[in-house]
Specification:
By secondary structure, the protein is α/β, with parallel strands linked by helices. It contains 11 helices and 14 strands. The chain has a 6-stranded parallel sheet. A 6-stranded mixed sheet has the order 9-8-10-11-12-14, with helices on both faces. One of its GO terms (molecular function) is DNA-binding transcription factor activity.
Length: 340
Amino acid sequence: MSTRGGEAARPKKRATLSDVAARAGVSRALVSIVIRDAPGASEATRERVMRAADELGYRPDVRAQMLARSRSKLIGTVFGMTGTFHFDVLDGLYTAAADRGYELILSALTQSRDENRAVESLQDFRFDALIMLGPATPKPVLAGKVPLVVVGWHVDDPAVDVVRTSDADGMAMAVEHLVQRGHRRIVHVDGGEGAVADSRREGFAEAMRARGLADDARVLPGGLTQFEGYTAARTMLDDPRLPTAVVAFNDEVAVSVLEAFMHAGHRVPQDISIIGWDNSAVSKLPHIRLTTVAQDPRRMAKLAIDRAIDRMEGTAVDERELVLEPTLMVRATTGPARQD
């Protein structure tokens, strides 16, 4: 910190509307008109005021502006820090919100920060609606209190809108792709706890049962991260009767399973086929080329923003739950079942 005469320099005072008015030689009310881009000031005055604001480094008090409006134009967003899918959806949310004249206020979920903490930190911003990318809970704490949209899982509460991809159809596509190539001993490495993991487990069991393979179906505990994928892979590798195929909860887990099998001397897909979920950037890397169940994060984001705004504005909607069809992206990690 710079000093003068042995004393610490005081922080520069934040410029106010009055400071800008004095610099521009106009009234404070006129500066407010210009800053709010409201009618009532000439072009020359606007230029003089904006030049003065720039010289002083003036920044509007956003929270004061929000309090002065009946609607904040802010949408709260709760998201998780694991995997890449949430970040893809977030990027789409920013774009879709900006197109409608809204901004996002973010609050992250971590191992030490649950839904209650994440939502509590948003309350001071007086957001107009909430979009949740996680946690995948069947009973969001703010259900019925604000317009609320969850992205990725089913919620029974009629006060909550839902945008999700069909887990049942995605699993049916993945299992059918493998069965058509002769696979029977198929393992699902699940996503741990939560509504999305539950839905994909159920989808896997139903897809295997529908094809007469219920006795061959196996579910291993997994999670959302590469570490949990590696742990599941070690469990499979320690079993003398290896599966011929694996369907993972997401691409992060799938890539970890792939690497563990390859490091153990197994070939992909000659010895084992692997399918991920999300069609994330890692699945498209040229040395991986992962077969994966693709979701459309940008479309999901736009639908979530549009639905939140519809609820804020009282617009009638036809369906509370919007369910999108996934796509199976077939790449290099699936092939014919090995013959033991």
